[in-house]
């Protein structure tokens, strides 16, 4: 593609993955500043700030930079073992409360979207019941988000059997959930992540064609699934081209083509496509971010 990639997308980045050690107020704000001062990026996704004052300062930074802001509730659920489709009602209620806290935090920093994930797949015997519980949970969260403003919710598709073993999961089930949730909230959507597709056993074309009518966010990253002894095995989001990983320039090129084919990426559409990459031990955040940018440029040239 000869036209600039920035004519077709806002390139975003998942801050808490790229800077996993930015836990203090100083590091949280410093690393956010490093991203939003780089005009390659038009979007950023953060998770919980260390404290309320830091959240207020982060919002000021986002507003001054004019970037699209997303909030990731995935770390909140994973860190607290929250399960929105748990068979136990009390466990579901706890997970719903966790995401509601995330919604409050997202609104505080001025985010436009909030991403989250389903709980573990309970197995074939209880799967349909779990899907029903998940729909109910998300509908409650959508009503809560609407009461707070215009925050869009996005259910991210994770692996079904490899690492996180989430209910959602396969694109077919994701669409089934989205269809029901949209009866309550037409703005609700799905998030597809390139790094999860090899674990899901789905090609970009299949996953994106299936979800095209519900897709409202997209990630790009890598995973390792060939060698269980690899220290980065599973859903660890190594840099593109990691030895033993699944995603490099050819796979990213295929993903970009599929996103263009379904119309998620289009000239002037201004939708976010975000890197989700994490430095391995011994790697720096700055180096893998620069490498990701180079990989995207190369893949875009081949589209």
UniProtKB/TrEMBL annotation:
Pfam families (UniProt xref): AP_endonuc_2 (PF01261)
Gene3D superfamilies: Divalent-metal-dependent TIM barrel enzymes
Domain of life: Bacteria
Keywords: Isomerase
Molecular function via GO: isomerase activity
InterPro entries: IolE/XylAMocC-like, Xyl_isomerase-like_sf, Xyl_isomerase-like_TIM-brl
Keyword Cell division: no
Keyword Isomerase: yes
SUPFAM superfamilies xrefs: Xylose isomerase-like (SSF51658)
Ranges of residues in domain Xylose isomerase-like TIM barrel: 41-278
Annotated signal sequence range: none
Name this protein carries in UniProt: Sugar phosphate isomerase/epimerase
Organism: Fodinisporobacter ferrooxydans
């Amino acid at each position: 593609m000869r036209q600039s990639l920035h004519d077709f997308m806002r390139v975003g980045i998942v801050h808490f993955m790229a800077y996993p050690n930015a836990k203090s107020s100083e590091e949280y704000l410093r690393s956010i500043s490093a991203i939003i001062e780089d005009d390659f990026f038009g979007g950023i996704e953060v998770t919980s700030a260390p404290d309320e004052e830091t959240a207020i300062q982060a919002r000021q930074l986002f507003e001054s930079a004019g970037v699209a802001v997303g909030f990731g509730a995935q770390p909140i659920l994973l860190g607290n073992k929250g399960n929105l489709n748990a068979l136990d009602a009390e466990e579901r209620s706890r997970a719903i409360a966790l995401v509601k806290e995330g919604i409050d935090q997202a609104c505080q920093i001025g985010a436009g979207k909030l991403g989250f994930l389903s709980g573990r797949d309970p197995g074939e015997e209880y799967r349909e019941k779990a899907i029903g519980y998940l729909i109910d949970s998300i509908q409650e969260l959508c009503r809560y988000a609407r009461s707070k403003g215009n925050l869009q919710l996005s259910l991210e598709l994770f692996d079904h059997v490899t690492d996180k073993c989430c209910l959602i999961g396969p694109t077919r089930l994701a669409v089934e959930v989205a269809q029901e949730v949209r009866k309550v909230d037409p703005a609700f959507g799905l998030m597809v992540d390139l790094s999860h597709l090899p674990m899901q056993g789905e090609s970009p074309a299949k996953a994106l064609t299936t979800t095209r009518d519900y897709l409202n966010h997209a990630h790009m990253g890598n995973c390792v699934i060939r060698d269980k002894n690899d220290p980065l095995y599973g859903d660890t989001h190594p840099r593109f081209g990691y030895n033993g990983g699944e995603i490099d320039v050819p796979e990213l090129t295929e993903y970009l083509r599929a996103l263009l084919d379904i119309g998620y990426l289009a000239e002037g559409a201004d939708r976010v496509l975000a890197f989700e990459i994490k430095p391995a031990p011994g790697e720096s955040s700055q180096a893998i971010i620069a490498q990701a940018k180079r990989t995207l440029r190369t893949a875009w040239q081949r589209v």
